[in-house]
Each structure stands twice: as C-alpha cells, then as structure tokens.
Write a structure and sequence with these properties.
Strand content: 15-25%
Helix content: 25-40%
Number of domains: 1
CATH superfamily: Formyl transferase, N-terminal domain
Distance between the termini: 11 Å
Largest sheet: 7 strands, mixed
Number of helices: 6
Bound molecules: 5-O-phosphono-beta-D-ribofuranosylamine
Order of helices and strands: EHEHEHEHEHEEH
Length: about 190
C-alpha cells in the first residue's frame, strides 16, 4: 500500500487514530512542539518538526511550504494527510502531491470553514453539524469531499463537548477514508 505522511500541530488524537488503524505512515511533520510529536514517537514513527518561525504578518508561507516539501521528499510518500495542522500551506505542496493532500475538518463543509468551525456552528444555533474529509486545495477548507458524517448538537453543548464528539467521529471516518483513498491509488497504478 502507498505510504502517507501526517501533518499535525495539536493533541494528535486524529494522528493516533490513523496510526492505530495501521495506516502506513512514513513520517509525521509538525510545525511546533506539540503532543502529536509524542504520539508519533511512542509508536516509532519518525517526527520532523519544520518549526514555524513566525505567526505574524512577516510569515513567508511559500518559503515555509517549500521547506515542508523538501523535508517530505526523501520519505517517498504518496499522500499527505493533514490532522489538525495549524499552518495553511501554499502552492508547492499541491504541486508536489497534486490531488493527494487530504484533510479532515470539524464541520459539514461548505458550512463553517476556518479555524473556529465548531464555535461558529454553535453560535449559528444549528441543530446538527459534523465533519468532512476532503481533498485539500489551495483554497482553505475547500476541494472535493470524500466523506461526511452528521453530528447532532445537543442542548447545553459547549465548544469543547461538541468538538470532542465530532472528533470521536473523525477518528473513525478519517482513517477509513484515507484507507479507501490509498486503495484507489493502488488500484489505479496496478
Ligand atoms: C480535528 O477536529 C480536525 O478536524 C481539526 O483539528 C482537530 C485535530 O484534533 N482540523 P487532534 O489535535 O488530532 O485531537
């Protein structure tokens, strides 16, 4: 089966689900010190931190993306799976892995794009939200949808409780969808 790289910045619970599902993961890339690094190392997966030097207006997104692509190159991965990666990447990643950069997002896209998807859904007072696995494109939280699942919003819900219930679904849906995607790549190259 083709191998993947996972990009993460946070607690790494989605990363953990990908690894637990046995997806062939060659490397985990992070952009800062984060718990996801420990999750990877505990399972013997190499971590390469491409430290993001700035979160201000001087951040050079294109240069940063080229650094990520360069670090990824020797690992020979076919697919890049973002799992809570806190940096929006530029064109170089989509050129290098065209149509093979995947993402999971905690809303039913195209509703509630962006970093505050769960809070925005709560604030909008919707009865249901959910998660979306999609092919990432240069346009943030856009691109072909591979899978979606609805999560009901319960009375008295907070961002924390709702996000945790959405992530519970993501931990099942993302590994299954990535696996299906890898199998289709394999079939296409057979
Ligand atoms: C997930 O909800 C994912 O959709 C979003 O970031 C979260 C990552 O969670 N992009 P974790 O850090 O893996 O627990």
């Amino acid at each position: 089966m083709p191998r993947i790289a996972v990009l993460a910045s946070g607690t790494g619970s989605i990363l953990e689900a990908l690894l637990e599902a046995g997806l062939p993961t060659a490397v985990v890339i992070t952009d800062r010190a984060c718990a996801a690094e420990d999750v990877a190392l505990a399972r013997g997966v190499p971590v390469r931190r491409v430290e993001r030097a700035s979160f201000g207006p001087d951040f050079d997104r294109n240069a940063y993306t080229c650094d990520v692509v360069e670090v990824l190159a020797p690992y020979g991965v076919s697919v890049v799976a973002m799992a809570g990666f806190g940096t929006v990447l530029g064109e170089a990643i989509h050129r290098a892995y065209s149509g093979r950069v995947l993402n999971t997002h905690p809303s039913l896209l195209p509703a509630f794009k962006g970093w505050h998807a769960v809070a925005d859904a709560l604030a909008a007072g919707v009865d249901e939200t959910g998660c979306t696995v999609h092919v990432a494109t240069l346009e943030v939280d856009d691109g072909p949808v591979l899978a979606q699942e609805v999560v009901e919003v319960l009375p008295g819900e907070t961002v924390k409780t709702l996000h945790e219930r959405i992530k519970r679904v993501e931990r099942r849906l993302y590994p299954a969808t990535v696996r299906r995607f890898l199998e289709s790549l394999e079939e296409a190259s057979a």
